[in-house]
What we know:
heterodimer; A: mainly alpha; 3 helices; globular; B: alpha+beta; 8 strands
Amino acid sequence: MNYYDYASLSRALNLLEKRHGLASEDFYRLHASDDPSVAHIRGFTRHIWADLYLDSCRISQPGVAA
Amino acid sequence: MARTIQEYFEERKEECKRLSLVPNTRPRYLIEVGSDEKRGRILMALHMTERASLEVSESVVIQGNHAHRRSYAYYLVIDGQEYWSRDYDSIHGYHGHTIGHKRIKAGRVSFKEAAEQAWEIVSQEEELEDAG
């Protein structure tokens, strides 16, 4: 069985950031406001990216983004 | 009822078999470190036909004897295009998408319901293709 933690979430986020040239925090803000500048990113990828970002926030700072 | 995330994962694997969904690549069933096996993620692409697959993401937490999906995304991809989806996330709540990622209202669906709807769409598409 495989596990994940803050470090592995961060690695996954780094890959997405490099691929799309956008910091996760900025992506999340744009995605949450339906900004068209991130509309070219596949919907499934957007879902995962936002989800992983929120999870990394929750794990690093419990209670901030539960 | 799943009492641990591993039990939930096993239930999902069995459900995939019953729904004739086979992973395209190695599926990822992941447990969160330090969660006492109460939190986890599923990430996988499931083969449907030569042209269609179902991409799956779930974030799950076990509460008592109940598995709660904190978020999910079930995306039907046909000929490389995101054709239909059912989603749940903390930003947009329960919703779905049609071709071109147009967001539509949609209620909560189980994985099984999403897969059955995806199969229905795929069979309709193939009938249309055959008729054309």
